[in-house]
């Protein structure tokens, strides 16, 4: 079975599942997801899809229309997105294990599962995989192919997804408007130049595009503004001007020095991917009747998913529950409850939190966004908090507890150890060693160090018997 190890959902960062991959394999997955984020954040085509996605969430009235337009556009750029991402993965693998590249490509080609789709997507770029400048060529091709000039698309077409699709796939239009076709044409053009003895380092993809009659524009703030106005007119909606500069790349990253791609890479965040909530075996409510357990509350499709970890028995139950049920269980049991920060906020906004909050002894809030983007939030919520640290799944976890508060933040900084080390050196947190004694004093519930490890297991929905050794680390 091929497991999904990473995910990019047009947000300002990408996610990965720390349980599925380790070491180098994890790195390749992260390069794959970074490619998606990069292409969506730097091209007109990616920008439009990201903007429509965002709008569909904040505009419930036109939600379906907007979503369908985004879907049509995504489908016509699927090959290029997966192609470039897979190319990146293979390219990095080839640097580490040059002798394994051929068998790796063969495995992709002859696989019977989703990997076959990746092979089809990357096929056009494979001739460049052993070229020194292959990576640059692939990115140049993608930049141009996704640099579609939307000002030439007929008015009033976005509202009708069938018409939009018909327009994009029309053979007279594909060269100007369909990224997947532009990508294949360009890749072939580049390959022809290489066959004609041109050195890859001397190839200018924009010149080849010009010869092939492929026009493109680059994303900048003017273009963003124009594109937003276009969307505003097409859907006759009011848009906050701020949304114009909504971009899948956070400003912290755009403004930081160094290579954009590498800076984006560091934004990967270990987060339980949604599909995990669907695969844990179910139990029933009456079985949750123990003193010793941990409860994780998840909110999916306007429904609570309760995950109960019975630590004594080593069993995990997972099922959908009604609000009253959740409150009732929280009142009956004296146990810690874990929420992802996103869930916490959603429940708060929907007035579903107070009763739960009053019923539990302590909340653990897992910050499901990168440290760079959430550190302000923690700073606002705590005052010189205590923090302790341990590593699990090759990820350092930082527990941040303000003595006066009922909740404890859990943050990770998988790809940005330097940043966190700096904050610790600057006494942003008061780093303490964890001990049973410390926990007893600072948490109003009967917990020990082992329970904290179980909390991490609960966040990522690991089966309790799949445990790994955990050790404390020092990074300062
Ligand atoms: Zn992908």
Mean pLDDT, rounded to whole units?
86
> How is the quaternary structure best described?
single chain
Distance between the termini: 40 Å
Number of strands: 12
Principal-axis shape equals globular
List unreliable stretches of 5+ residues. Answer: 467-476
Unique ligands: zinc ion
Helix content: 40-55%
Largest sheet: 9 strands, mixed
Backbone structural class: alpha/beta
Q: How do the strands line up in the largest sheet?
A: 6-5-4-7-8-11-10-9-12
Number of domains: 2
Fraction of residues in β-strands: 5-15%
CA-based gyration radius: 25 Å
- Please tally the helical runs, counting DSSP H or I stretches of 4 or more residues: 22
Protein traits:
binds zinc ion, alpha/beta, 476 residues, single chain, 48% helix
Describe the secondary structure blueprint for this structure:
Elements: E1 6-7, E2 15-16, H1 23-42, H2 44-58, H3 63-75, H4 78-96, H5 101-110, H6 115-122, H7 134-145, H8 161-169, H9 174-177, H10 179-195, H11 205-212, H12 221-234, H13 241-244, H14 251-255, H15 260-265, E3 269-270, E4 293-300, E5 303-310, E6 315-321, H16 323-332, E7 337-340, H17 341-349, H18 354-359, E8 363-366, H19 371-381, E9 386-392, E10 395-401, E11 407-412, H20 417-425, E12 430-431, H21 436-442, H22 449-460
Parallel strand pairs: 2-3, 4-7, 7-8, 8-11, 9-12
Antiparallel strand pairs: 1-2, 4-5, 5-6, 9-10, 10-11
Helix pairs in contact: 1-2, 1-4, 2-3, 2-12, 3-8, 4-6, 4-7, 5-6, 7-10, 10-11
Bound molecules: zinc ion.
How would you describe this protein?
By secondary structure, this protein is of the alpha/beta class. The chain has two domains: 6-267, no CATH class; 274-466, no CATH class. Helix content is 48%, strand content 12%. It has 22 helices and twelve strands. It has helices at 23-42, 44-58, 63-75, 78-96, 101-110, 115-122, 134-145, 161-169, 174-177, 179-195, 205-212, 221-234, 241-244, 251-255, 260-265, 323-332, 341-349, 354-359, 371-381, 417-425, 436-442, 449-460; strands spanning 6-7, 15-16, 269-270, 293-300, 303-310, 315-321, 337-340, 363-366, 386-392, 395-401, 407-412, 430-431. A nine-stranded mixed β-sheet has the order 6-5-4-7-8-11-10-9-12, with helices on both faces. A three-stranded mixed β-sheet has the order 1-2-3, with helices on one face. β1 and β2 (15-16) form a beta hairpin. α1 (23-42) packs across α2 (44-58), α2 (44-58) packs across α12 (221-234) and α5 (101-110) packs across α6. The longest helix has 20 residues, at 23-42. The radius of gyration is 25 Å and the shape is globular. The protein starts with 5 loop residues before the first strand and ends in a 16-residue tail after the last helix. 39% of the residues are buried.
């Amino acid at each position: 079975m091929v497991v999904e190890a990473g995910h990019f959902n047009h947000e300002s960062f990408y996610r990965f599942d720390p349980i599925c991959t380790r070491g180098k394999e994890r790195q390749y997955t992260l390069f794959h997801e970074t490619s998606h984020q990069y292409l969506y954040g730097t091209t007109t085509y990616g920008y439009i899809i990201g903007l429509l996605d965002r709008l569909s969430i904040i505009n419930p009235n036109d939600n379906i229309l907007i979503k369908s337009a985004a879907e049509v556009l995504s489908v016509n750029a699927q090959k290029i997105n997966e192609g470039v991402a897979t190319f990146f993965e293979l390219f990095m693998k080839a640097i580490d294990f040059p002798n394994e590249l051929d068998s790796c490509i063969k495995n992709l080609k002859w696989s019977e599962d989703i990997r076959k789709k990746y092979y089809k997507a990357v096929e056009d770029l494979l001739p460049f995989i052993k070229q020194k400048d292959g990576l640059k060529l692939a990115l140049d091709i993608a930049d141009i192919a996704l640099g579609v000039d939307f000002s030439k698309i007929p008015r009033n077409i976005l509202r009708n997804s069938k018409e939009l699709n018909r327009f994009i796939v029309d053979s007279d239009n594909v060269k100007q408007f369909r990224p997947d076709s532009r990508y294949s044409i360009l890749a072939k053009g580049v390959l022809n130049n290489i066959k004609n003895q041109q050195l890859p380092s001397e190839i200018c993809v924009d010149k080849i595009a010009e010869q092939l009659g492929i026009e493109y524009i680059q994303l900048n703030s003017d273009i963003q503004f124009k594109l937003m106005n276009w969307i505003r007119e097409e859907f006759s909606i009011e848009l906050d001007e701020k949304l114009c500069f909504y971009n899948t790349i956070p400003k912290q990253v755009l403004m930081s020095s160094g290579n954009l791609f590498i800076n984006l890479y560091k934004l990967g965040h270990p987060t339980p991917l949604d599909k995990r909530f669907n695969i844990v075996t179910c139990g029933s409510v009456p079985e949750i009747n123990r003193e010793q357990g941990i409860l994780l509350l998840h909110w999916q499709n306007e429904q609570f998913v309760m995950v109960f970890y019975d630590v004594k028995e080593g069993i995990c139950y997972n099922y959908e529950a009604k609000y009253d049920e959740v409150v009732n269980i929280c009142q009956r049991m004296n146990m810690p409850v874990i929420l992802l920060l996103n869930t916490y906020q959603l429940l708060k906004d929907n007035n579903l939190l107070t009763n739960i909050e009053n019923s539990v002894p302590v909340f653990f809030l897992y910050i499901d966004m990168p440290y760079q983007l959430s550190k302000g939030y923690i700073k606002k919520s705590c005052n010189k908090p205590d923090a302790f640290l341990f590593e699990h799944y090759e990820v350092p976890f930082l527990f941040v507890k303000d003595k006066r508060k009922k909740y404890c933040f859990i943050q990770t900084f998988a790809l940005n150890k330097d940043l966190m080390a700096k904050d610790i050196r600057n006494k942003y947190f008061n780093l303490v060693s964890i001990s049973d004694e410390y926990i007893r004093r600072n948490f109003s519930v009967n917990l020990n160090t082992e329970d904290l490890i179980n909390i991490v297991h609960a966040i990522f929905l690991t089966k309790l018997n799949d445990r790994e050794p955990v050790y404390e680390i020092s990074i300062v």
